[in-house]
Specification:
By secondary structure, the chain is of the alpha/beta class. The chain has one domain: TIM Barrel. The chain contains 12 helices and 8 strands. The chain has an 8-stranded parallel beta barrel with strand order 1-2-3-4-5-6-7-8, surrounded by 8 helices. The longest helix is centred in the last third of the chain and has 20 residues. The chain is globular and about 45 Å long.
Length: 254
């Protein structure tokens, strides 16, 4: 059942470096074009309410110049809905957002806001955007995402990745088991399954080997590695690890 695994490269933190000093350098669009050449199947960009990294102009330029799909990450606000409806990107991924957080801290609370989110998503779907919802590996949230019309769920891998990095291997194995089980569950509902947040060279392969997972979205780690080895080779190495994990001999070993 396993099919090709797509890689979405998140270019937010190229903009973070640019904004630390102002001006135009480094250019997120240039990073996106390098990512295309290096094997990315799509580009992810999160336009936050406070514009701390990606800007409105970045989104304009990405829409004008990308030849691979743009995955537009956004909070469920009226402002972001209007921006998405104006641009009509290939996909919109609805994520939680808090001003004080350093990065997205967890999955969206879909079950508590089911009615509001169902109405919020309807115009986006009608405009032709593929709707993805960023959730924890939690059955209740996945069921709610399905009920409100999400076509994709992106499972938050942060707890798994953190546990691996910190050597908490019992926790890591428990979190990975949840990702595996909820990937299977979401797939059984007819949802396409993506995974993102915190993935590195050291922990990506078990997730990439899950046959229900169709896309990984990776950003901060790749931009960090690019400082040491360059963006193109950093992405190519990740692509190689993902493709290797998809082979049957690796899947049978985990």
């Amino acid at each position: 059942m396993s099919g090709p695994l797509r890689l979405g490269v998140n270019i937010d933190h190229v903009a973070t470096v640019r904004n630390a000093r102002g001006g135009e350098y480094p250019d997120p669009l240039r990073a996106a074009k390098i990512a295309e050449e290096a094997g990315a199947d799509g580009i992810t960009a999160h336009l936050r309410e406070d514009r701390r990294h990606i800007s409105d102009r970045d989104i304009d330029r990405l829409m004008d110049h990308l030849t691979v799909p743009l995955n537009f990450e956004m909070a469920a606000t009226e402002e972001m809905q209007q921006i998405a409806l104006r641009h009509k990107p290939h996909a919109v991924c609805i994520v939680p957002e808090k001003r004080e957080e350093k990065t997205t801290e967890g999955g969206l609370e879909v079950a508590r806001e089911e009615n509001r989110l169902a109405h919020y998503l309807a115009p986006l779907r009608e405009a032709g955007c593929r709707v993805s919802i960023f959730v924890a590996a939690d059955k209740r949230q996945i069921e709610a995402a399905h009920r409100i019309g999400g076509e994709v769920v992106e499972l938050h891998a942060g707890a798994y990745c953190d546990a691996h990095a910190e050597g908490r291997f019992d926790d890591r194995d428990r979190e990975f088991a949840a990702l595996r089980e909820m990937s299977q569950f979401a797939h059984s509902l007819g949802l396409e399954v993506h995974v993102g947040h915190g993935l590195t060279y050291d922990c990506v392969q078990p997730v990439a080997a899950l046959p229900e997972v169709m896309e990984l979205n990776i950003g901060h780690f790749l931009i960090g590695e690019a400082i040491f080895m360059g963006l193109d080779p950093a992405i190519r190495h990740m692509r190689g690890l993902m493709d290797g994990a998809r082979r049957s001999e690796y899947r049978s070993a985990i």
